[in-house]
Amino acid sequence: MQALPQSPASSDGIGRVRVSLATGGFSLETIVEVPRGDVAEHEVVPALGLIADSIVSAASRGLDVSCRPGCGACCRQLVPVSLPELRHITAVWAARGDADEIAARRDHAQRRLRDNGLAGAVSGMTALDAREMASLARRYMDLGIACPFLVDERCTIHDQRPLSCREYAVTTPPEECARPGRRLVRRVPLPFSLSGVVRRNASEPGWRSLICPPSHIDEELRSRAATWLRRLLGAA
Length: 236
Ligand code: SF4
Ligand code: SF4
What we know:
Layout: E1 2-5, E2 14-23, E3 26-35, E4 38-40, H1 45-59, E5 80-81, H2 83-94, H3 99-115, H4 119-123, H5 130-143, E6 150-151, E7 154-155, H6 163-167, H7 174-177, H8 194-201, E8 208-209, E9 222-224, H9 225-232
The structure holds iron/sulfur cluster (2 copies).
Residues 75, 79, 147, 149-150, 155, 157, 161-162, 165 line the site of one iron/sulfur cluster (SF4).
């Protein structure tokens, strides 16, 4: 993987980085916009989202993808995110006019988890291995807890949604997504999981839950966006 600064100065504080990904038989070249100068790790997350969209779009070519706006059965799953993503989404959330409503939905979700004995496992999911994560994901989906960002079955942070949400594209009918345990959902086969690559290469690796905001947000190192992207995509 390469991430090379592409454009010199622009007056709007935006720079461009050329990203080349190659793995197995898959390759992708794209240019993403990033803030110029030294930035915190979470500030390159929007660029990662665009890279994830490009990967999913290339992998979906020729397939009949079922996902449509207003289709939200998948938004009742455990959504694993990396710490940079969680920091980015928390900042997006704090800046919104409906931040209090989102917090109320998040509190409701956390209450449901507490009532069902899953709160500890979800807030401490960084420590879980793959088998424990799979088991937690099944128990979580059985509860049917809607994501705090879901309103009228639509994602209200669609442009900023987590990488794992972007990677969840399916070719089976949407009704299958609403039936936990039946395992009839067929996903678009991706060359690799960008969300997993970012989770492993973040400064503080590991999965977090989308509904557990980070306890600290302002202790991050700052570096060039191309440097962060090289680091975060290093093993792709
Ligand atoms: S994953 Fe399933 S529920 Fe989610 S948008 Fe796609 S088809 Fe709809
Ligand atoms: S962030 Fe958006 S797409 Fe992801 S689970 Fe929540 S509502 Fe659904």
